[in-house]
């Protein structure tokens, strides 16, 4: 086992250690300064954040990393006037929570630790539950020296606070997008997008206003609506917002809980409410992560329905559908459009000489080059075998010919040999057909025109581009398609 931090991180190991130490210290300070004097912490986010960090950056989870974290927490306690013994013991409880949670989450494959599957939420629930139970047990063992409470009250208080806090914060950290993804994020805001959020804020305000034991459940429908409409990370932020608002409202006695009766005290109410809040965020989180799985599956299904498996180009039916939509748009916008039919020359010879596997590779490498050269609005698809097509919006015959000629040369000069020994070159023949701005033809007619041009390119010796519109005598052919 490595005792240093892993070398694959960009920052040097010592700087990472100092970072970890400082982070643990800083987070503990925040927790200490927001803790009412002589009382249990209302909200102790340190453990959840550090646990999340360890899971997101496994390189930190080394004996040295764990020690830096522990020392950072102790430093925070000592610099705020805590005694040595207490500082050591309290932070053993904190570290025990992080280590227990970490061990449970390690049972999940790394790819699932970012909450993208419902079972990851269940593992996280177990991690928070066991982690809080272990920490609460350790703190209750030294109860006499720490708090003026019975061991049971100390246990329940630690457990309920840590269980709920971790369950609210950990999903945010695990589901947070990486900085690169965050910068690429495009927010497509419409007034309807904000409705679930508005409903959540209203139901939260309503639950604080009405109060009573049932009020913590008021935001559930709005949270479920948010889970259906928003991304998982947004849902984790909203469950955190909901939980925090309710915990703070209850502790400030804003939600008018019943506190009379022989066994009921304010701290009992808060403990019970915390556990309830922890349970209620599970539903929206599980729904949201199930939808992540569904969306991924749908995207995969859509992709395999629309794209050719071997070449990554559009499949024939998707190409036809999109080309028809493009023609429809052309008629309305009165724009030109061109179609290029492309056929690899003597492809049978490649199969016969090099075998089918190399043939497949050539098809895929050819398609890769084409996709890299074409713009996003130009449709590229495989019609079948070694025949492909490009639909060019807003392009007259001359522009389509120029593109065809460029692609022909690009392919002619490319080496498609996967083994990199002998160069393997191919050539292509291209037939172009174009429709001017006010011309109307069906896709089938446009295809037939391009096919005539392609036939001519083949019969004139291959490795060339021919345009139906420029073929001498095409006026004669052209009448066929009027
Ligand atoms: N490796 C591989 N070969 C394919 C695939 N689809 C079709 N082919 C082969 O492509 C070849 C096409 O041959 P032909 O239609 O005679 O055309 P060609 O040899 O390219 O000749 P010209 O088009 O006249 O230049 C056939 O041998 C098919 O078996 C595929 O997915 N993979």
Topology, please?
Layout: H1 13-33, H2 46-56, H3 63-79, H4 84-106, H5 118-141, H6 143-146, H7 151-175, H8 179-184, H9 195-210, H10 220-229, H11 232-251, H12 266-280, H13 282-306, H14 316-333, E1 337-344, H15 347-354, H16 356-373, E2 379-384, E3 387-393, H17 397-412, E4 428-435, H18 443-459, E5 465-467, H19 474-478
Parallel strand pairs: 4-5
Antiparallel strand pairs: 1-3, 1-4, 2-3
The structure holds guanosine-5'-triphosphate.
Structure description:
By secondary structure, the protein is an alpha+beta fold. It folds into two domains: 13-300, no CATH class; 309-481, Alpha-Beta Plaits, CATH 3.30.70. It is built from 19 helices and five strands. The protein has helices at 13-33, 46-56, 63-79, 84-106, 118-141, 143-146, 151-175, 179-184, 195-210, 220-229, 232-251, 266-280, 282-306, 316-333, 347-354, 356-373, 397-412, 443-459, 474-478; strands spanning 337-344, 379-384, 387-393, 428-435, 465-467. It has a five-stranded mixed sheet. Helix 4 packs antiparallel against helix 5 (118-141), helix 11 packs antiparallel against helix 12 and helix 11 packs antiparallel against helix 13. The longest helix has 25 residues, at 151-175. The chain is elongated. The termini are far apart. Residues 1-9 and 478-482 have low confidence and may be disordered. The site of guanosine-5'-triphosphate has 16 residues, from strand 1, helix 15 and helix 16. InterPro entries: Diguanylate_Cyclase (IPR050469), GGDEF_dom (IPR000160), Nucleotide_cyclase (IPR029787), Rev_trsase/Diguanyl_cyclase (IPR043128). It holds the Pfam family GGDEF. Residues 335-470 form the GGDEF domain.
């Amino acid at each position: 086992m490595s005792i240093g931090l892993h070398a694959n991180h960009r920052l040097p190991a010592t700087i990472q250690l100092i970072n970890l130490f400082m982070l643990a210290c800083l987070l503990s300070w925040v927790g200490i300064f927001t803790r009412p004097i002589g009382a249990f912490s209302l909200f102790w986010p340190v453990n959840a954040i550090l646990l999340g960090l360890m899971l997101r950056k496994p390189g930190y989870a080394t004996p040295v990393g764990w020690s830096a974290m522990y020392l950072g927490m102790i430093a925070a306690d000592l610099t705020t006037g805590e005694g040595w013994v207490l500082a050591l013991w309290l932070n053993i409880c904190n570290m025990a929570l992080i280590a227990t949670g970490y061990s449970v989450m390690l049972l999940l494959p790394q790819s699932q630790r970012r909450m993208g599957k419902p079972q990851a939420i269940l593992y996280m629930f177990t991690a928070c539950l066991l982690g809080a139970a272990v920490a609460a047990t350790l703190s209750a063992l030294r109860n006499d020296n720490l708090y003026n409470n019975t061991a049971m009250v100390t246990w329940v208080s630690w457990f309920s606070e840590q269980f709920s806090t971790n369950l609210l914060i950990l999903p945010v950290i695990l589901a947070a997008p990486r900085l690169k993804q965050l910068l690429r994020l495009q927010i497509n805001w419409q007034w309807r997008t904000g409705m679930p959020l508005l409903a959540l804020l209203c139901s939260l305000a309503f639950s604080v206003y009405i109060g009573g034991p049932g009020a913590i459940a008021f935001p559930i429908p709005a949270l479920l609506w948010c889970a259906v409409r928003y991304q998982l990370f947004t849902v984790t932020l909203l469950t955190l917002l909901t939980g925090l608002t309710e915990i703070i409202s209850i502790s400030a006695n804003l939600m008018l809980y019943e506190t009379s009766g022989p066994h009921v005290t304010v701290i009992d109410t808060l403990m019970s409410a915390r556990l309830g809040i922890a349970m209620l965020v599970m539903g929206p989180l599980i729904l949201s992560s199930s939808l992540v799985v569904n969306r991924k599956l749908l995207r995969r299904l859509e992709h395999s329905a629309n794209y050719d498996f071997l070449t990554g180009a559009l499949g024939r039916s998707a190409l036809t559908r999109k080309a028809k939509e493009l023609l429809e748009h052309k008629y309305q916008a009165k724009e030109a459009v061109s179609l290029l039919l492309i056929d690899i020359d003597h492809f049978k010879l490649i199969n016969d000489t090099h075998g089918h596997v190399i043939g497949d590779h050539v098809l895929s490498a050819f398609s890769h080059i084409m996709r890299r050269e074409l713009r996003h609005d130009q449709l590229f698809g495989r019609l079948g075998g070694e025949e492909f097509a490009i639909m060019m919006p807003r392009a007259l015959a001359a522009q389509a010919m120029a593109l065809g000629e460029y692609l022909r040369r690009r392919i002619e000069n490319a080496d498609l040999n996967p083994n990199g020994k002998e160069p393997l070159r191919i050539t292509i023949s291209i037939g172009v057909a174009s429709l001017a701005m006010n011309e109307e033809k069906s896709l089938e007619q446009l295809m037939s025109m391009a096919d005539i041009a392609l036939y001519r390119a083949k019969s004139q010796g291959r490795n060339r581009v021919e345009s139906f519109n420029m073929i001498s005598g095409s006026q004669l052919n052209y009448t066929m398609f009027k």
